[in-house]
Structures are given as structure tokens and as C-alpha cells.
Design a protein that fits this description.
- The complex is a heterodimer of chains A (474) and B (207).
- By secondary structure, chain A is an alpha/beta fold.
- In chain A, 28% of the residues lie in helices and 22% in strands.
- Chain A folds into two domains: 2-399, Glycosidases (TIM Barrel); 400-474, Immunoglobulin-like.
- Chain A has helices spanning 2-23, 35-38, 42-54, 66-69, 91-102, 136-149, 197-215, 240-247, 295-308, 338-354, 391-397, and strands at residues 28-32, 59-65, 106-112, 169-172, 186-188, 193-195, 220-221, 269-272, 318-324, 328-329, 336-337, 357-362, 400-406, 409-415, 420-428, 431-440, 445-451, 456-462, 465-466, 469-472.
- In chain A, strand 3 (106-112), helix 6 (136-149) and strand 4 (169-172) form a beta-alpha-beta unit.
- Chain A starts with a helix and ends with a strand.
- Chain B is built from five helices and three strands; from the N terminus they run βαββαααα.
- In chain B, helix 1 (29-49) packs antiparallel against helix 5 (183-206).
- The chains are: A alpha/beta (474), B mainly alpha (207).
Amino acid sequence: MRLRTLVIAAVLLVSGANAARARAQGLTLGFSADPALTGTAPAADATWIPRAVAEGAGIVRVNVIWSRVAPRVRLASFDPADPSSPGYDWTAVDAAVRDISSRGLRVLLNIWGAPSWAQGQGAPAGVTRGTWRPDAAQLARFASAAAVRYDGGFPDPSAPGAFLPRVRYWQPWNEPNLSYYLTPQWTRTGGGWAPASPGIYRGLLNAFYGAVKRVSSSNFVVTAGTAPYGDPPGGQRMQPVAFDRSLFCLRDDARLTPVSCPDPPHLDALSHHPYGIGGPLWHALNADDVAVPDIYKLAAILHAAERAGHVRPAGPKRLWVTEISWDTSPPDPRGIPLAAQARWLEQSLYVLWRQGVDTVLWLQIVDAPPIPSYGATYQAGLYYLGGAAKPAAVAFRFPFVTRRMGSGRIEAWGRAPRGGRITIQQRRGGRWVAVRRLAVRADQVFDVVLSIRGRATLRAQADPVTSLAWTQRR
Amino acid sequence: MCRHAGQRPEGADNQLSDCQPQGLWNVSPLMRRIAIALVVALAIPSVAQARVHKIAPPGNSGVGQYLETVPTADGGQPTNTIHPGGVGVGVGRGRTGGGPDSTSGGALTASTQRALAKQGPTGEAAAALAAATAPRRARPAAHSSGARRESSTSTSGGPGSSPSTSVLKALSGSTSGGGLGPLLPIALIGSVLAAAVLTLMRRRGTS
């Protein structure tokens, strides 16, 4: 018991430094690159996008694979900075942006995967296509074209007289600490290995940032979410803390001492993908890996960079999580139980929020078709493929978590599914009795301390939505 | 399984009932200490070997890029190789090792696994860590399916190598995977004895 208490206390202690900042923030929820939302199937528009809205999502991340939009071979007339240039095929992106925006959801365009003509020279055999030293200048031209196309004033080619919706949120690349997305991760030095991908990514990020901000200064740039785990130097992956330390030109010491950084990263939010080996309280085993309760490590790097002027423009930056999920069993035999998914979902929102994260995108709203297998596909939906809801749908719609703070105090945290009144209830003698009433705005985070001794089962209610209930032991 | 005992959600037609606290710490302190000592004794030499092994997020157990690298006594593995015997730490299946086909790799006896499982998340985590870092019976095959995700197969013992033989070989350093030779069993026994003595001393001190 003591060990568990210590672990929990450690999580909360290390996140405490960011708590004050987080309290002033809300919590935006969304979904990440789910084909059910971003694809062209009629079901996306008719079923899943409305459900995403009903679940309280505010944003949807859409994959834009650069090499699929851009021509494979550039004709002489091709102008990569012109969204109307012959050779570009924006059909799928237009449809996703149009459908998602039409329901009031914001779109985060995540651009990655270079066409062959925008990669560097000398790619070794076997590297993933589109990953080898992408050309930052070419990425900037593509970003500029995309930003112009979705600035709100670009004619919609499928609807004469109408304009394509405005997209404000942009994310250059994905998981740049993995060779699956960016190579090389390391370069050989005399006696070992030196990080390569952070420098490459910094160039991509800054070129991208400048391009979309030139189109509209109100555009918002989120860094590529880093993957949670890495390998020792020379491997196929870089640990996210090591990646960000290098990205922000900070030394690997306790003080994160700044080193020379001629072109600091430009960004509005730093993102990470804290897929957990265990639940939301499970720390990564390695110091430079980052699971859900370890986001504070990245926050510390970000704050050190802010202090050192190693992030531009000056000022505090936000923390986003653009992917997180756990697959369930059923249907994936290797997934976690439905109940655990529901519990871990809302508890991870709480743990992330405590550490300063203000936007979390769940991957995904509905299970993917198991083709070729459950193991090869994501089964982390809030809904089964057939449309039935999992318990996690409630946890997403109305996250509610309790935590005992002492013998007579229980913290109750949640995110309001709608504006109005929320009632926190305690089960007494088979009945639910109100113990606290709160006036809230829609999507507002509430965090209150209740004076309750002994065992207590609590839930929150915002008619007609009722959260899952939590029981606190003595 | 509840990762955070003492707090459990309810509702959803009792679908969350598996998050009920289950006397998580009701095993005897002696048993608990012995089990933890065993796990630590297994893990420490593995760390010393500075070799890597990978465990994966539950459900995402097939996602190669999200494997967590951990030291193991079994030697380095290719980045995209998955070891089902070690995946699924804390996946909440009421067992260690994650997938339905997985094994604990022979690191812990069934009774020790049960004892650890009764201790809830921490015990399961300890058992999973032992499974993930223990000498392995045989090297599993890695399969790749799909561009983004990689699936894996179950671990099975190699021909002519029983779990106990493999473990003994690994302990004595006679496998290709290395080992600490006679030092490891000495360390194991020493740890167990130290834990037992410590417990007895404390008991006497408090009685």
C-alpha cells in the first residue's frame, strides 16, 4: 500500500509545478486521424462526425500525406507554392476539411511523408519512403500552398461560389523520433552516435512555421507528436526527452543548460504521444522515455527552452497530446478490458491535465475493420465497428475522476459535457445524494475538494449525462 | 485490472466490476518481500548486462514503434522484434505477459506469479518486469503485418530445451544469451535470505 501511495504521490508531486498553469486552462478533446472521420465514406459525414460532436470533441486531426497530394513527377509548370497548380490532388483533404468543418469541429492538418523529389540525396536502401532528410524549403512551399488553400477564401472546386473552410491548426510531420517517419535518427561520429533527427526536424518545423504564419499570423503550429519510447544511440528510434532536449538545444544535465542555438524552434504548442505500456499512472522505465505520467519531463524541457529564449516566438507554449489510446478486448484479444479502457481514458485526461496538457486527441472514435488482423489495426474506439458504444464513450463525453487527498478530503475532477449545473453525487444507502453543485461552462474543467470521510462512491451528473462512478476507499 | 487501486469506477452495467479492489495486499509481508526480492534479483543482473528487450503497450502490442526498450539478460534484439512473452505489462488480463499465447518465460513459478498477482498492480508489474527481463527459453519469431503495425507470434520453447533447463543454462552463463554464471544464483539466494532475515528481525523488533 505504501509503495502504491508513494508512486501516486510522486506522479502528483512532479506534476504539481505545472498544476497552477493547467488550472487556468481548459481541456480540449478531439480525435486523431480516424479514417471514420477523415475518410470519404458516407458514414463519416452521416454518422461518425456527428457522433464526435456529440461526444464533446472540438478538434479532429487529419493526415495530409504530402507525397499523395503532390505530383510524383514535377512538370515544368508545377509551382509547389500554388495550391491550384496542376499536379496537386487535394480532393481527399478538401473533403475531410469540408465535412469536419461543416459540423463545427476544428481541423488540425498533420502534414508528413515527402515526395521522392523532396528528399535528400544518398538515402540508404531500406529507409522508409518519404522520410530521408526531407527538404525544408520544399516543405515550406507545400505548407504555404496548403495554408492558402485553407485560409477561408479559396474557392471550393466542388461547389461553385463557395469557399473551402478555414483551417487554423497545423502540425508538421509525425513522430520525428522514429525512423518510420524521419531518417536518419542518428549519424555516426568518431566514437559513437550523434542525434540527427532533432536538427533535421528543427529545420522542417521552422520552415513550415514561417510558411503558414506568412499566410495568416493567427495560424497555430503544433510540433509533431513524439513517440513515447526510443532506443539506445544508433537505434531506429530516439527517446523523446533526448529528442526534445536536442531540438531545443539544451544540454543533458540537471539544469538543462542551454547551448548554442542559432535557429531556435518556432512553435505554438509542443506535442507528444504518450502511449502507455500500463495505465495512466505507469511511468516509462527509461529516464528519457515519456508515458502518460512523464509528460512533466517534456514540460520541463519546454520551460527551460522558454527561459533560455530557445523557443520562438517568446512566451509560454502549450502542451498537446495528439495521439493516445488503448485497444480493447473485445475485439482485440491483446487489448485491455472495456472497463479498464474507460477508466484509463478519463484518468489519463486528468493526469495529463495536471501536467499542463490542454488538448488531448484520442485515437480513435470507432474500431477499425480488422483487416488484415486485430493486431495490425487499432481497436481503441469509443465505439465498436458495429456502432455500439463502449464504456469509454461515457468517459470521453463526461470525464470524471476522484482521488483521495487525505482521510477527510477527496478531490473530484472532471470536464463538463455542457454548460449549466453539475451535481457531484455520493451513493448513500442505495440512493445518489448531491454533495456539491457547480455552475460550469461547456467543456470547462472543474477541480474541487470534497470533505468526505470513509469509503465513498461518487459520480457527477449534468443532465442528461452521468459520468462513470468512482469509489474511494478509506 | 485497476492500475490505481483504491479508486475504481463503477456503472456501465457492472462492466467495470473487474476494477474492484481484491484484497490486493492481503498476502503475508514475508511472501511479498520474498517475491519482490526475487524480482529485483532477476532484474538487477539484467540491467548490468545493459542489453535490451522490448515491451509494448497493451492492445497496441503489435505496434513496433511503440515498444518500450528495457534491459534484459537475453541480449539485444532487432528494433522491430517483439517478444510476446514480455509484452503487456499491466494489461489487466489477470495474468502477466499480455497476450493469450504468452508465457512468463519461466522467470517465476506459478505460485510466485499468483502471489504477485494478488498484490494488484504493483505485483503484476513486478511479475511482468521479471518476465520481460528474464532469460528466455527461445528466441521468438517476429512477424510483420501491415505497413504501420507489426504483429507477433507466441513464444515457444526451443527443441530439447525445457524451461527449467533454459533458465539454469542462462543462470550459469552457458547460453549464447550470456549470464552471470554462478554469481546470479548466489545473488538470488542471498537476496531471499536477506529479505527473510530482515523480515524476521523486524517482526521480533515489533513484538
